Amino acid sequence: MNKNVLLIIGGGIAAYKSLELIRLLAKAGVKTRAILTKAGSEFVTPLSVAALTGEKVYDDLFSLTDEVEMGHIELSRSADLVVVAPATADLLAKAANGLANDLASTTLLATDKKVLYAPAMNVRMWEHAAVQRNVAQLKKDGALFVGPDEGEMACGEFGFGRMAEPDAICGAILAQLKNGPLLGKKIIVTAGPTIEAIDPVRYLSNKSSGKQGYAIAAALANLGADVQLVSGPVSLSNPSGVTVTRVESAAEMLNACEKNLPADAAVCVAAVADWRPDTQADKKIKKGANNNVPQLKLIENPDILAILAKAGNRRPRLVVGFAAETEKVEEHAKAKLTKKNCDWIVANDVSGDVMGGDENEVTIYSKNGAQKFTRMGKEEVARQLAQEIAKVLTA
Ligand code: C5P
After folding, report:
1. Residue 62 has pLDDT above 80, yes or no
2. Residues 188 and 157 in one domain
3. What pTM was estimated for this model as a whole?
4. Taking residues 128-143, what's their average pLDDT?
């Protein structure tokens, strides 16, 4: 994502979280320029902000050299979005009333871009009628808000006023900056394995790493889609700009997918366990006196792909399944297309090192035939697949 954010860092203890925010944005390809208010510089140093943004930090309205290099008007317009984090009661009051007596408030008045506020203050201050009035006014003027969260505060009190966590702020920023052919399209992606409990400490599962599904979720989000990733347990971090619901069992995965209907497309990449134990012991099963081995009775799990593809008028317009096979790839893929009522089956041969590896070689089967891709990295597979999905959803 090739975008720019102007981040105004106000004076609050939460300012340290803004450093992490800059790092997360950089990871998502968003460049940050920062204004550090005088109060903000009591909490974080201009040097750390400059090191993380890789840019000069702006902090004084009346610096003549800044006005020559980049005036406050230009500064407020050169970004795609203005973000205020932490947004203190003072900054909210200035912005709501149109004051312009320092660089931060002048920029907020001069900008022609959307402004996203991440408030951070003591719970009593947040609940004060004056602050609530200012927030209501700013919302009326078109401002966006993320947080504040409820929780323990640096001052020892408890309640609403904690600044939203950096990944939540980053998510809200990326949602605003999104554009591309899939803007406005909601896509469910399932990824990773499921685990099916035998007892509180043991389970049945499989070797899926989640890499391919996560890469597809990220690639679809990059094209502007509202991606709802339903993920089994994996050791991957959330892809930026994607909403993630973490689940364990197939039943939980199905439930989370159904909650996301209606959707424009569903891409089922998860390696859902085919079976689960018919009962789950609520206590750890102990070895018997004679070391007797417990006999597991397995029952079939719901087929999430088939259920979504047969959801009647709630069926997503495009339903994509995957088929990981070790033999007769084409034959099995075609059989699955019909049996599960999906539009495409993306088939791959997992007899080699595909599971857990970084590369994949896939073929898309549909009722119109087969489209074979050469072997490439899972991220490139994801990018090309996302483009094929965009072609269908924008047709
Ligand atoms: O039948 P098989 O497991 O090979 O089918 C694979 C496809 O079906 C994948 O897209 C997988 O995500 C999906 N699937 C599912 N729920 C299951 C089993 C498979 O969604 N219980």
Report:
1. no
2. no
3. 0.78
4. 97
Q: Determine the residue of 206, 257, 268 to mutate for testing ligand 1's pocket, defined as the one with the most ligand atoms within 8 A of the Cβ atom.
A: 268
What is d(CA 42, CA 37) in angstroms, rounded to the nearest whole number? 9
Reported as a single tens digit per residue, the pLDDT across 90-132 is 999 999 999 999 999 999 999 999 999 999 999 999 999 999 9
Residues 6 or more apart whose Cβ sits within 8 Å of residue 94: 100, 101, 104, 105, 108
Residue in 194, 300, 305 to alter for ligand 1 test, most ligand atoms within 8 A of Cβ: 305
What's the total number of domains in the chain? 2
The pLDDT value given to residue 32: 97
Closest CA to 60 of 321, 52, 69, 51: 69
Domain boundary among 176, 206, 224: 176
- Whether 303 is in the pocket of ligand 1, judged by its Cβ within 6 Å, is yes
Look up the domain containing 45 and give its range.
Answer: 3-176
CA–CA dist 254, 5 (Å, integer): 37
Of the residues 123, 158, 176, the one at which a domain ends: 176
